[in-house]
Structures are given as C-alpha cells and as structure tokens.
Amino acid sequence: MSTAVAVIGAGNGGTAIAAHIASQGGQVRLCDLFPEFLEGIQKSGGIELNCEGMTRKVTPALVTSDVKAALSGAKLVMVVTPAFTHKMIAKACADSLEDGQIVVLNPGRTAGALEFLETVRACGCKKDIIVSETQTLIYSCRKTGPASVHIYGVKTSVDISSFPGNRIQEVLDVLAPFYPQFTPAQSVLGTSLANIGSMFHPTPVLLNIGRIENDPRGYRYYWDGITPSVAGLIEQLDAERVAVGRAYGVELLSAKEWLVRSYDTHGDTLYERIQNNDAYGDIMAPKTIQARYMTEDVPNGLVPIAALGHAAGVETPNIDAVITLACSIYGKDFRTEGRSLKNLGLEGLSRDEIIEYFKTGVK
C-alpha cells in the first residue's frame, strides 16, 4: 500500500513536493488553508510537473482546504509554508493530529520544529507525534501557473532533524522511499543554525532594495543581485553563524561548502560558486520588498541565530546590523515579534540546558 502523505501548503514548494511524491506513487493529500490556491489544480484535475527535462501530469489523491480530511490516516505530514505561518498551521492542525504521525517542516528555518510542537501542545494536543525540520527546501522550484510547477534542481543532500533529536531514525525511515537525500543532523539545533536561507536572502535584498523598488523589469536574484561585494558581506554573516554553531557543539558547513554539497557547483569563492550554479540561473528577484526573503528570514532566521549566539557568549555584529537595518526599513521590531528565546521557551536557560533540551525534549 502506498504511503499516505499530507502536504500542507500549495505554494511553490508545496506544489513541487505534492507533485514529486505523487509521481513516485505516494498517496498525496494536498491542502491549503486558503482555497483560492487550490482552485487551479482542482479545475485541471492535477498538476503539470516539469522536472529534469520531462513534463508529466500527476494527480493528487485529494485536493482540499479541510485540514482534518488531509491529515486523517496520513503517516507523513509535509508542511511547506513560510516560517511566519508555522504557528498558524500548528493551531489549524492541533485538533486533527494523530498518534504516530511525523510532521516535517520544509524548511523549519530556525527552531521551527520547537515552535510548532510548543504551539500544538499549548492547543491541548497530547498525541505522540514527531516534529521534524529540514535545513532547506530540497528543491529549487517555482510555480509556473495555477496548476503547474517547474523543479529546476533537486539538492543532492539536505540535513534533517527531529524534536526531540533522539527520534530522527523514525523520520528517516518514513521519508527514505521519496527522499533518500535527507541526512540526519544532531538535533534541531543543527538544522536551525544551518539556515542558509537566512544568509542568502536578507542581505542581498537590503543591498539591492532600491533596485527592487525602482526596476519593474526585475533581475536575476542570485546571478545579478549577488555581486562579489554582496557575497563578501554574506560570508561575514556566515562566519558568525558558524561560530554560533561551534559554541553549541554543532559543526556547520559554511555557505560556500553547502553550495558544493547541495548542487555540486564549483569555484574558489562564494561568488563564483553561486555564479556556477545553474539551478540559480532562472530565479528572479522578488518584485516587492514585502517579500518572505525579509519578512520570513529576518524574524525566523537571523533573530534566533543571534539570540542563541548571545546566550552562548558569541558576538554577531554583522547579523545584528542586518536585523537593525531591517527593523528600521520595515518599521517592525523583528527581535520582539520573531523567534526570540522568550518566544521559544528558552529564556533563562544556559547553553548546556539549551543543548540538552533540543536533544531530549526535557528542560
């Protein structure tokens, strides 16, 4: 019998995951809380999937905005929505989750699994579930129409973790038929601090913000927007991220190393490896500064990375600077609104206590 998989979110990543799993024989239930995102797929009777030079139509077993119907009997629940919606999704799922289900946030950004589990518990859910998070989305992809998606590249290796960390093998066993690329991280600390999106998104948007606001033609986000100077600043933020990981006993790949592992690109510098990555070639910059590259990756990526750093005595001046500039430009207090230690239930814990909590789920 094929595995029943609920996919929550019908955006770029969710549509890609639903189509890809369905193409491999999975019994997919595609769900979105906003019915308008499903209308095109419902009308066409499926999803047109363009992947690896081939185009085919795949049909999910169910396309619905009914969360309970999507989750009922599903062994695997793939949440593929922006990080700032994870709490909302957790609240919507809390009453329908079942014992033995595995929830995977694709990706979790930073501490997403912890936030999701704490939210469903606060809603009264006591089911025996595992909440897992990937370090990044496994695809480079875009929806090309209401019922079509193009997967430009599939990463060769992506880290995944679970909360608590000692249940990761259960997650890998369920995912293996669809995604052998997933490799286990030590704990959610590992995937959280390996949040490459927080390195590749806010800084280039800030440094190209005038271009985004004034150039209606747009530009290639990676190939045109990340110049040698922009890449140099990204590397400084990245060094701080790696230092935070080291303070928690987590050895992280640098962004430069991650590109080779994920895409098998080449080059001596971060800039060269981005330019030599064909999967990035067709990805355009956001049309507005009100994009998830900022509204998701600052409060749910940079803020918790810096906060974890400060808790461990690691200075993060460049990350702090990007957060401060983002707060000023967007008129928001991302440090208060985002995944702070307080909001994650980690305030007052020592570094060693934080490490133990992520590993065992016990404070």
UniProtKB/TrEMBL annotation:
<dbReference type="InterPro" id="IPR036291">
    <property type="entry name" value="NAD(P)-bd_dom_sf"/>
</dbReference>
<dbReference type="Pfam" id="PF02317">
    <property type="entry name" value="Octopine_DH"/>
</dbReference>
<dbReference type="Pfam" id="PF01210">
    <property type="entry name" value="NAD_Gly3P_dh_N"/>
</dbReference>
<feature type="domain" description="Opine dehydrogenase">
    <location>
        <begin position="185"/>
        <end position="329"/>
    </location>
</feature>
<dbReference type="InterPro" id="IPR051729">
    <property type="entry name" value="Opine/Lysopine_DH"/>
</dbReference>
<dbReference type="GO" id="GO:0046168">
    <property type="term" value="P:glycerol-3-phosphate catabolic process"/>
</dbReference>
<dbReference type="InterPro" id="IPR003421">
    <property type="entry name" value="Opine_DH"/>
</dbReference>
<keyword id="KW-0560">Oxidoreductase</keyword>
<dbReference type="GO" id="GO:0016616">
    <property type="term" value="F:oxidoreductase activity, acting on the CH-OH group of donors, NAD or NADP as acceptor"/>
</dbReference>
<dbReference type="InterPro" id="IPR011128">
    <property type="entry name" value="G3P_DH_NAD-dep_N"/>
</dbReference>
<dbReference type="GO" id="GO:0051287">
    <property type="term" value="F:NAD binding"/>
</dbReference>
<feature type="domain" description="Glycerol-3-phosphate dehydrogenase NAD-dependent N-terminal">
    <location>
        <begin position="5"/>
        <end position="104"/>
    </location>
</feature>
<dbReference type="InterPro" id="IPR008927">
    <property type="entry name" value="6-PGluconate_DH-like_C_sf"/>
</dbReference>
<protein>
    <submittedName>
        <fullName>NAD/NADP octopine/nopaline dehydrogenase family protein</fullName>
    </submittedName>
</protein>
<dbReference type="InterPro" id="IPR013328">
    <property type="entry name" value="6PGD_dom2"/>
</dbReference>
